Amino acid sequence: MGGPAPDPVFVLRGAESPVTAVTFLNVDATEGQRDKYIAAGTQDGKILLWNLKTKCKTTEWVAHAGSSIHWLHSESPDILWSLGRSDSVKAWNIHSSPAAVSTYPVVDYLGFSSSHIIQVNSNTKLLSLPGPSQEGVTVWDIDKNFKISTLVPPDVKAFGSMMQPRWMKIQDVIILGVLYESGHIALWDWANSKILSQHQVTENPMCFTFDKSSQTGIIGTAAEKIYVFSIQNNLNISIVKELSIINAGISSCVIRPDGKLFVTGGWDSRIRFFSSKKCKPLAVLMYHKKTVECIAYSKDNIEELGGGFILAAGSSDKSVSLWNIFN
């Protein structure tokens, strides 16, 4: 990891409370053009938008009154998804001032889980969201506005609270992976409410993500450990690598869209980069003053910030840093 650490290419300010979720989105502009934006969700329930061309904040609204925002997602222009803790998942039309176009309630879940969306085909889009209860996950068909299933482990005491759901594609089969407080990862047949495979990876997990091209994933923990795991075609889960870091606590993790890097955000305010192939540390960035609560990669090239995949990091210090590194 030789050489001086780089500075962010830009820092977005204007949030009045800790930034707890962040994502990139495209917004339709004039003459068929699309502008690139950053969306940030905050602990006080607000969503803020910045135009990446002008670097200016353009919009701010209360999306989840009284609830911190723990997930933002955008897979199509103008539509932004948000999850408010113990509140609901909402889809927002950014061109409608903005307006919530659909709402999915979170029932009796008090944890800090995110949600996840996957496009199965042109007619089916699936949403997983926390609840009911601390252990459950609910699966919705968004296009039909139909609740498909509720997934609760048969032994809830052994698994503990649900930490995070994530859609996975294994040999073209859509599976829902769910991380639990006990360190179990369960691979669910979501249509039939049945666990296909499970493995206890670690204790005190905080976050996880998965790369479908390599069939490997990352788990961040409350300890000084990061785990890399793989899922075989027979759905067996195994640990590939156990990485040690200096200070305890990983709040967020993400794999770059090309699969070459993975990145973690820490309680110690550090952003850590690793090579995916060899699981080697590449850089530690120390810009933020407080916990890096959330990180997200752009899905494509961002010319406005020098080209390549751009990393956004939101922090409890109320700022969002933007990084162009290893491109």
Automatic annotation (TrEMBL):
Residue ranges of coiled coil: none
Domain of life: Eukaryota
Keywords: Repeat, WD repeat
SMART domains referenced in this protein's UniProt entry, alphabetically: WD40
InterPro entries hit by this protein: WD40/YVTN_repeat-like_dom_sf (IPR015943), WD40_repeat_CS (IPR019775), WD40_repeat_dom_sf (IPR036322), WD40_rpt (IPR001680)
Start and stop residues of the WD repeats: 285-327
Protein name as it appears in the record: Guanine nucleotide-binding protein subunit beta-like protein 1
